[in-house]
């Protein structure tokens, strides 16, 4: 592929929801229901176990996180990687997202700093005409993917909330993730179902994704340690490229480790948030 194709593919995920416009976004959070309440089974039932995954993360408090998002469209395949920390009780996180290098090995874009908050995504070094010292704020419920792919990384807590929509799952067996013994489950979650049980702001975003994705069904592989904490979660999404009307397949992998890690996240002040127009990236001017 040539350099421009690589650039466009690498930015497509990060830019997907930004072009839909900016919104004010709610920052409130309410309690969640328990999807396991209407499924049979107890501690050893895969569906019941997986629907509790987000609650278990809240109990764990915080962790470090690594993300990888692989996108395939039209024969082009790129991977966007991120790394950071997340506070599951305050629902605040920080990720540094790195876009792919061009074929010559030259970075296409400075790393993007992302702050994850209830109902909102903040991005710095967004490019596309945004001043380097300004943040872009996006209301996650306004995005057709619910911010499951827009930022080039899936919000770790939102990824766990998707599992509340688990309709069927099987226990694959025991294995290891980064040297930690884990139980491997494989199944399918329904975004609309997950939206009904998630906290209010997450529910709105997941409901938007259920309508905006090519399918509301999300195949996944989940790896939980013996305390029920997610250690690795791989989810598959599919959306339709709005401009070219082609289906894009996205595989998002989230790794969680270093539970209890300190998380210091301060959201941007109003004067530091960019209020201007976001330019389109396809001429490469954003990098």
Summarize the main sheet: 11 strands, antiparallel
Note the gap between the termini: 19 Å
Radius of gyration: 18 Å
The computed structural class is alpha+beta
Pick out the low-confidence regions. Answer: 1-43, 281-287
DSSP E strands, number? 11
- What is the CATH-assigned architecture? Clam
Number of helices: 6
- Helix and strand run: HHHEEEEEEHEEHHEEE
Description:
- This protein has 287 residues and is an alpha+beta fold.
- It has one domain: Clam (outer membrane lipoprotein receptor (LolB), chain A).
- It is built from six helices and eleven strands.
- The chain has helices spanning 3-15, 46-51, 53-60, 156-162, 191-197, 200-212; strands at 62-73, 76-87, 92-98, 112-117, 120-124, 135-139, 166-177, 180-190, 217-224, 230-240, 247-257.
- The chain has an eleven-stranded antiparallel beta sheet.
- A hairpin with a 2-residue loop joins strand 4 (112-117) and strand 5.
- Helix 5 (191-197) runs antiparallel to helix 6 (200-212).
- The longest helix has 13 residues, at 3-15.
- The two termini are 19 Å apart.
- Residues 1-43 and 281-287 have low confidence and may be disordered.
């Amino acid at each position: 592929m040539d350099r421009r194709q690589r650039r466009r593919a690498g930015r497509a995920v990060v830019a997907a929801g930004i072009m839909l416009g900016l919104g004010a976004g709610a920052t409130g959070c309410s309690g969640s229901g328990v999807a396991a309440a209407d499924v049979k089974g107890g501690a050893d039932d895969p569906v019941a176990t997986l629907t509790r995954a987000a609650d278990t993360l809240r109990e764990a408090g915080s962790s470090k996180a690594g993300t990888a998002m692989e996108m395939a469209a039209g024969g082009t395949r790129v991977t966007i990687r991120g790394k950071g920390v997340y506070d599951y009780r305050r629902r605040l996180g920080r990720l540094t997202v790195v876009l792919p290098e061009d074929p010559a090995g030259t970075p296409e874009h400075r790393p993007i700093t992302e702050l994850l908050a209830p109902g909102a995504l903040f991005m710095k070094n967004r490019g596309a005409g945004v001043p380097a010292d300004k943040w872009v704020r996006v209301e996650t419920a306004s995005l057709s993917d619910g911010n499951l792919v827009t930022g080039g990384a899936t919000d770790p807590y939102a990824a766990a909330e998707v599992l509340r929509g688990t309709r069927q799952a099987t226990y694959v067996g025991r294995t290891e993730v980064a040297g930690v013994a884990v139980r491997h489950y494989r199944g399918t979650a329904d975004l609309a179902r997950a939206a009904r049980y998630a906290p209010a702001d997450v529910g709105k975003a997941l409901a938007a994704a259920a309508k905006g994705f090519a399918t509301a069904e999300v195949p996944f592989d989940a790896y939980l340690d013996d305390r029920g904490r997610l250690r690795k979660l791989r989810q598959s999404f599919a959306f339709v490229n709005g401009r070219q009307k082609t289906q894009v397949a996205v595989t998002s992998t989230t790794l969680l480790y270093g539970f209890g890690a300190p998380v210091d996240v301060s959201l941007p002040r109003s004067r530091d948030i960019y209020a201007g127009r976001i330019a389109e990236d396809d001429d490469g001017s954003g990098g």
